[in-house]
Write a structure and sequence with these properties.
By secondary structure, this protein is of the alpha+beta class. It folds into 3 domains: about 170 residues, Periplasmic binding protein-like II (D-Maltodextrin-Binding Protein, domain 2), CATH 3.40.190.10; about 150 residues, 3-Layer(aba) Sandwich (D-Maltodextrin-Binding Protein, domain 2); about 100 residues, Immunoglobulins (Immunoglobulin-like). It is about 30% helix and about 25% strand. Strands 19, 20, 21, 22, 23, 24, 25, 26 and 27 form a 9-stranded antiparallel beta sheet that branches. A 5-stranded mixed beta sheet has the order 2-1-3-17-6. A 5-stranded mixed beta sheet has the order 11-8-12-7-13. Helix 7 crosses helix 15. The termini are far apart. About 50% of the residues are buried. The N terminus is likely disordered.
Length: about 525
């Protein structure tokens, strides 16, 4: 599915009233609740705000500006904490009450946050503001049925190619094969997460016309089926193209633009890396849409995901505080707020007027992600386990010796996603451990010493040793530096801790989880 990012050049006047009343975390707002009258919002509120580390200082300033200039008499005594968009959902779901009153999160976390009752539904006035001021796909990203549950924060959550102009000729930027040759000739790396991220791997498949479309049940949260064509003749073409890059001695699986300071000539990443890339390359900084690759004489332009960063408001027991929080969220995600974030960290706006701003359009990274939008697939709601299942494709492709091996990689992938819909209730509720501990390089299997295990490829079983406490069924020999998470139902919807658990001291351990608190610990074997 190809879709061009819409840019609407009309200035929108904000006439809507404030957001909906708040409610208890386990009791979503109902559609007939009125918006809070603005005259009743005056007061001082203690609140907690979660956002990415690189915008903490800016967010503090924006809240101070809101306090000084809002017409409602609202003052926020705000604690702003650095919690990344990828971690916020897990932390919110673990303990909604202790979570941020306002928090930023990645689009793919939206469904699980709604399901957990961690997002307050927007009132009619707030919903109209979102619909009127933001690009249509970003509005879809915060919608369940006819209801909206969050505010679009950016429209740049996609990827493209940064490159070093002193190494890569401009005439080569459209060809994977020429880019690989340029990197090999210069002995510099082509960096793209083909073994560590399904998000990037999908670009090869989207380029050949494959789809992975996940269908929600009537509740708008749980998945009931998937239409996925990765395991197809077109999918085989995609992995043949991918194989060319993975087989290069100057390929590495990473998306950190800091790689330009350590011998990279190309890094596939997003707008969030622009400031760092510009500092590393200076006048040699290039930014371009994803290239094309050739298989059997036919050329395929690599696709991508495009998606959004979002801002949510936690449900509140105090309706007045809830309405005041929605006023702040509207301010932080407004044209002005988004332009300030663009100026500070080059985040691409979802607000249509801000997106059309001349300085935004002149930014090379924004121009590249917009150009790539012609080949991008809007990121909808995707089963949490898909990210773990799909990223294994890259490792399997790299290890494949022939076409049969490439087809086996696709077969393994298809079987894994199909199994998501045939799991028993016991399997869906079971807890397991997954990570680098799943390979013979770090976490040794007593019964499988002679087998080779891939990282993050299989869940180690756990059992309930007392109510709400789960422990691995056996102890494992773990080396220092082993990383893992504990998750439920082979899915990332419930996974702990928020950051990978890292083993500090080698030893033989059980892994233990206390479900109520999300605490993960190592228990030494006796």
């Amino acid at each position: 599915m190809k879709k061009t990012l819409a840019i609407v050049l009309a200035l929108v006047m904000v006439l809507a009233l404030a957001a909906c009343n708040g409610t208890k975390p386990d009791q979503p707002v109902t559609p007939d609740q009125p918006d809070q009258p603005s005259g009743e919002l005056a007061g001082t509120y203690d609140v907690k705000v979660w956002c990415a580390d690189n915008i903490v200082d800016l967010t503090k300033k924006q809240i101070e500006d809101f306090n000084a200039n809002n017409e409602f008499g609202i003052t926020f005594n705000a604690t702003v904490e650095p919690v990344g968009e990828g971690d916020a959902a897990t932390q919110m779901i673990t303990d909604v009450e202790a979570g941020g009153d306002i928090f930023c999160f990645a689009q793919d976390q939206f469904a699980r946050l709604v399901q957990a009752g961690a997002l307050a539904k927007l009132g009619e006035g707030a919903a109209n503001i979102v619909k009127d001021q933001n690009v249509p796909d970003s509005v879809n990203a915060v919608t369940v049925g006819t209801d909206l549950y969050a505010y679009p924060l950016t429209a740049d959550n996609g990827y493209f190619m940064y490159y070093d102009k002193s190494v890569i000729p401009e005439e080569d930027i459209g060809s994977v094969e020429k880019l690989i040759a340029d990197c090999e000739a210069a002995q510099k790396y082509f960096s793209m997460e083909n073994e560590t991220s399904a998000w990037y791997i999908a670009s090869w498949f989207f380029g050949t016309g494959c789809v992975s479309e996940w269908n929600l049940a009537e509740d708008g949260v749980n998945f009931e089926s998937v239409h996925d064509t990765f395991n197809s003749p077109e999918g085989l073409i995609a992995v043949k193209g991918m194989k060319k890059l993975l087989d290069s001695p100057y390929y590495t699986s990473a998306s950190d633009v800091a790689g330009f300071s350590s011998n990279c000539a190309i890094v596939v990443s997003g707008t969030w890396g622009y400031t760092t890339a510009a500092a590393a390359l200076g006048d040699n900084l290039g930014a371009a849409p994803m290239p094309s690759f050739e298989v059997d004489g036919q050329t395929y332009h690599m696709g991508s995901f495009n998606g959004y960063k979002l801002m949510g408001v936690k449900p509140q027991t105090d309706a007045t505080k809830a309405a005041a929080l929605h006023r702040l969220a509207q301010y932080l995600t407004s044209e002005q707020g988004q332009l300030e974030r663009f100026d500070a960290v080059a985040w691409g706006p979802s607000n249509t007027v801000a997106l059309a701003n001349e300085k935004v359009q002149a930014n090379p990274a924004i121009a590249a992600v917009v150009a790539q939008g012609a080949y991008a697939t809007p990121q909808g709601q995707i089963h949490g386990s898909w990210w773990d299942i799909a990223k294994v494709i890259g490792t399997d492709v790299k290890e494949a010796k022939d076409e049969a091996g490439l087809q086996a990689a696709l077969d393994n992938y298809y079987n894994a996603i199909s199994a998501l819909f045939t799991m028993s209730d016991a399997e869906k509720n079971a807890w397991g451990v997954i990570g680098t501990c799943n390979s013979t390089d770090g976490f040794f299997f007593t019964d499988y010493q002679d087998e080779t295990r891939s990282n993050w490829a299989e869940d180690l079983p756990m059992e309930e040793v007392e109510p709400g406490v789960f422990r691995t069924t056996q102890a494992w020999d773990m080396e220092e530096g082993v990383e893992f998470k504990v998750r439920q139902g082979a899915s990332w919807d419930n996974a702990f801790p928020a950051d990978n658990f890292k083993v500090e001291t080698a030893g033989t351990y059980y892994v233990q989880l206390v479900v109520e608190t999300g605490e993960v610990t190592l228990v030494p074997a006796e």
